[in-house]
Amino acid sequence: MKLKFYSISILICILSISLQSYAQKSVGTIKGFVYDSKSAEPLPYANVQLVGSSQVAVTDINGFFNLPNVNVGSYKLLIKFIGYNMDSSIVSVEENKTSNLKLFLKESETTLNEIKIDVKKQERKTQTQVSTISFNAKTINKIPTIGGEPELAQFLQIIPGVVFTGDQGGQIYIRGGGAINTLFLLDGMPVYNPFHSIGLYSVYESEIIKNVDVLTGGFPAEYGNRTTAVIDVTTRDGNKKKISGKLSANTFMSKAILEGPLWKFKEDRGNGTFILTGKYSYIDKSSKAIYPWVKEGIPYKFRDVYGKLNFNTKSGSKFNLFGFNFRDKATFNKVSETGWNAWGMGANFILVPIKGKFFLNMLFNYSNYSLNQIEADGRPRNSSIGGFNLGMNFTYYVKNGDLKYGIQVTGFKTIFEFSNQLGIKIDQNQNTTEMAAYATFRKTFGKLVLEPGIRIQYYGSLGEISPEPRLRMKFNFHDRFRMKIATGLYSQNLISTKSDRDIVNLFSGFLSGPEEELLKIDGNAAKSKLQHAVHAILGFEYEPVNNLTINVEPYYIYNWQLININRNKLFQSDPNYMIEKGSSYGIDFLLKFETKRLFLWGGYSLAWVKRNDGTQVYPTNFDRRNNINLAGSYSFGKKLNWEVSLRFNFGSGFPFTRTAGFYEDLQLSNNVNTNINGENGQLGILYENKLNQGRLPLYHRLDLGLKKKWKIGKNLEIESNISLSNVYDRKNIFYINRVTQEKIYQLPILPTIGISFKF
User: Fold this and answer.
1) Please, are residues 707 and 635 in contact by the beta-carbon 8 Å criterion?
2) In 3D, which of 443, 441, 437 has the Cα closest to residue 465?
3) Which residues pair with 382 in a beta bridge?
4) Biggest CA pair distance of the chain
5) Whole-number Å distance between alpha carbons of 183 and 525
6) Residue 335's pLDDT is what?
7) Fewer CB within 10 Å: N-end or C-end of the chain?
8) Measured between alpha carbons, how far is 709 from 721 in angstroms, rounded to an integer?
9) Within a 13 Å sphere around the CA of 129, how many CA atoms are in the beta-carbon half?
10) What is the pairing mode between strands 229-235 and 182-186?
C-alpha cells in the first residue's frame, strides 16, 4: 500500500507539470549560472530573485538556476550570496523563449548580514533540509585542527549524530549505523575508505572542496545502496582566470595545490581549468623527534594525490575528468602491519540545453580499493573491491519546484581472504551488478514544501528487487520557525569484514551480499539477502534572532536485517554469515551562530544503539549515550587577519565485553593422540556471556588554535598557525590489554606549528 501511495503521488506530480506547461502559454524561461568574479568558480546556493514576482531560485552545486513559466515582460533580477555584494540585472522575457544568463558576483569587503539572513531564509523556506548539513571549505576552516590545516575528517566529528571512536584507527558512525552503512562520494564516485588509519585525516583535500552535504538520515531517492547516511563531497572546477595555489608544511605533513586556466579566460567562449593536489604525512618520523613522551612514535603514514581537468562551453555545459591515488600504512610493534591502496578515475558531463527546462548530468567512474594485513601468526587477511559506476541524472524545472529522475548502474568485484583465530578460513571472490531507477519531485505549495520520491533498486548477483519509497517535507509556520519530517525504506548489498563487535580493527574490507542461504534470528530461512532499514525523523528549525539557528531532530532507525561475517565460526560446516536486528534512536541538537567575526557551534546528541542476535539484546561498541561538541572561532585585528579557535568534545564511555576468566588453550598438535600433560598451551580468554555490559571511562578533550595572516602585494598571502590538541593532556583510553592490563591511550597533548603560502 505504501509503495502504491508514493507511486501515485509521483504520477500526479508529473501530470500536474504537464498541465501547467500546457495551460500557461504566454510565458518564457530565465536560466543561467552565477559565478565568482575573481576566479569564475560557480557559486552554489546563491539566491536569484525575480522582482515583481513570487518566483525565487537557489543555484545548485554547479551555480545553475532556472526560473520557468515566467510571465512575458521585463524584470529586475536580484542576485544575493553570502559574503558577496548584491547585484542586479535587467532581463526581458519573451513568449516561449529562454533567456540564458551568466552573472558574476564580487566578494564583499564588509559584513552584509542582511544579505546572509535573506539568502539563508529563502533556502530554508524552499528546501526540505531534513537531517542535512551543508558547508564548504571556509566553514571547515573555522575549527582548530591538529596540524593547523583545514580537515574534513575533524569537522565531521562535531556534527550531531556522528560518533567518532578515536584518533587511532577510529571510525565514524552516524546515528547507529556501522561505518559500512554510510555512502561516501567524491564528485559522484563512491569512496570505499575515506579516512586514514590515524583518524585525524581524510583522503579529501579540504582546500579544493566546493560543497559537502552530510545527510544523517532520511536521504532522498537519488542516493541508494546504503542504509544509514550519505556524505557527498563536490570539488571546485579550478581558477579560470589565473594560476594560483598553496604550499604548506606543519609538524605532521606537507601539501601542495596548483590550479589555473588551460588557456586565457573569456566570458563569451569556452574555458578550461586544471587542479593538482598532493599531501604527504611524516607523522611516524616527526612524532619521535618532537614528542619524546610518545616513545614508539605515532606509527601512521599516508600519501594522497588528486588531479582534475574541467572544460566549460559557452552555454555553461561542462565536462570534467579526475583521478586519484591514496595510500595508507600503519605498523604496530613491528609485528602487525596494515596497509591499503585506493585509486580511481572518473568523468562528469553536465549538459545545459539553450532551450528547455531540464538539466542533465552524466557520470562514469572506476575505482579500486585493496587492503592487506600482516600479523605475527602469518594468517592471510586480504580484501579488495573494484568496479564502475554509471549514472544519468535529469532535473526538470517547474514553477517553485523541480523533478529529479535518473538511472544508475554499478558493477564491482569483491575479493576476500581471512582466517580466524581457530585457523578456519573464510573467503569470497564475487562479481555483482546493481541497477537503480529513481524519481524525486519537490514543490512548494504556499507554506508547505513537499518532496516525495521512489527508488527501485535491483541487485543482480542476488536476483532481488528492492522498492524504496521516500518522503521529505517541511511546513513553514513562520519566517523563523519550520517543522520537517522524513521517512523512507533503504537497502544495502555491501557488508563489512569488520564486525560490529570489534572495538579496534584497522582491517576494514568489503564483501558483497552472500549468495548462500541465510537464517534469521528465529532460525527460519531469510527471504532477503540484503540489509534493510526504515527511517522516521521529525524536527524543527528556529531562528530566535538574526544569525542564530537552532535545529532539533528526534529520530528512529530500525534495521530489520543486518548481516555480519561470522567471526566465531568453529567448524567448516558453520555458516559464514550471521543475521541480526537492530535499532537506533535519539535526539540531535544543533545551535549555530555566525557573523563575519564570530563563529559558534554547539552540538549535543542523546542516543541509544542496540542489536539483537537472537539470543540477547546488547548495545553496540559505538553506543555513545551522550556526545557534546562545542566549537568556535573569532577573527580580530584591523584587517581581521588574526583568528583564535577552540573545540571541546565530551563523550560517554563506549561499551565493551568484560573478561570472565582465563584458561589454557591447548592446540592439540597431534590431534586425539596429543599428550595433554606435555602440551604447552596458549593463554585463552573467557568472556562474559552478555555482550558489552562494561563501559570505558568518559572521553573529553580540548583543542586550541591560533592563526595569523599577512598579505604581501596582491597575489601572495602567508599564514602561520599554532595548535594545541588535548590541552590538559587527558588520558583517554584507546584499549586495555586484557592479559597484562596495560592501558593504551589516545593521542596525548600535541602542540603543532605550521606555515602556508597562498598565491
Assistant:
1) no
2) 437
3) 372, 417
4) 99
5) 29
6) 57
7) N
8) 9
9) 20
10) parallel
What are residue 338's DSSP bridge partners?
330, 373
Residues 64-95 pLDDT 10s: 888 888 888 888 888 888 778 888 888 888 88
Task: Please write down the HEC assignment for all residues of 186-199.
Answer: ECCEECCCCECCEC
Share of the chain above pLDDT 90, in %: 47
pLDDT digits (tens, 9 = 90+) for 230-253: 999 999 999 999 999 999 999 989
Summary mean pLDDT of the chain? 86
What are the backbone dihedrals phi and psi of residue 671, each rounded to the nearest 5 degrees, phi first? 55, -135
Q: Which of helix, strand or coil describes residue 290?
A: helix
Q: What DSSP character marks residue 263?
A: S
Tell me 322's DSSP state: E
CA dihedral 137, 631, 628, 623 (to 10 degrees): 30
Distance CA 622, CA 171 (A): 9
Angle at 112 between CA 108 and CA 115, to 5 degrees: 110
Angle at 300 between CA 294 and CA 301, to 5 degrees: 130
Evaluate if residue 23 carries a pLDDT over 60.
no
Contact 349, 362 (CB under 8 A): yes
Q: Read off the C-alpha cell for 467.
A: 522498492
pLDDT tier at 608, thresholds 50, 70, 90:
very high
Q: How does residue 285 score in pLDDT terms, banded at 50, 70 and 90?
A: confident
Compute the distance between CA of residue 707 and CA of residue 692 in angstroms, rounded to an integer. 43
SS3 621: coil
C-alpha cell at 153: 575528517
pLDDT digits (tens, 9 = 90+) for 506-554: 677 788 878 778 888 777 888 899 999 999 999 999 999 988 999 999 9
Pick the CATH number of 2-113 from 2.60.40.1090, 3.40.50.2000, 2.60.40.1120, 1.20.950.20: 2.60.40.1120
pLDDT at 496 over 70: yes
In order, the DSSP letters of 418-460 are: EE-TT--EEEEEEEEEEEEEEEEEEEEETTEEEEEEEEEEEET
Within 13 Å and on the Cβ side, how many CA atoms surround 15? 6
Is 58 in contact with 78 (CB distance < 8 Å)? no
pLDDT greater at residue 424 or residue 209 = 209
Look at residue 60 and tell me whether its pLDDT is greater than 90: no
User: Which residue type does 280 have?
Assistant: Y
d(CA 658, CA 678) in angstroms, rounded, equals: 31
Dist. CA 717–CA 712, nearest whole Å: 6
Residue 66 or residue 568, greater confidence: 66
Confidence category of residue 132, pLDDT binned at 50, 70, 90? very high
Chain centroid, CA 154 distance in Å: 12
Give the per-residue pLDDT at 430.
Answer: 84
CA distance 254 to 724: 18
Going from N- to C-terminal start, the domains of the chain cover 2-113, 132-657+692-758, 658-691
The number of helix segments (H) and strand segments (E) in the chain equals 5, 45
Cβ(17)–Cβ(24) under 8 Å?
Answer: no
Residue 494: name the closest of 462, 518, 468 by CA: 462
CB within 8 A of 294, min separation 6: which ones? 287, 288, 748
d(CA 99, CA 97): 7
* Element (DSSP H or E) covering residue 633: strand 626-636
Cα–Cα distance between 159 and 152 in angstroms, integer? Answer: 11
C-alpha cell at 644: 583564535
Cβ contacts of residue 524 below 8 Å, gap of 6+?
none
Residue of 315, 322, 321 lying closest to 351 (CA atoms): 315
Report the SS3 class of residue 497. Answer: coil
The sign of the dihedral angle between the CA atoms of 725, 730, 734, 737 is: positive
What architecture is domain 132-657+692-758? Beta Barrel (2.40)
pLDDT of residue 11 exceeding 50: no
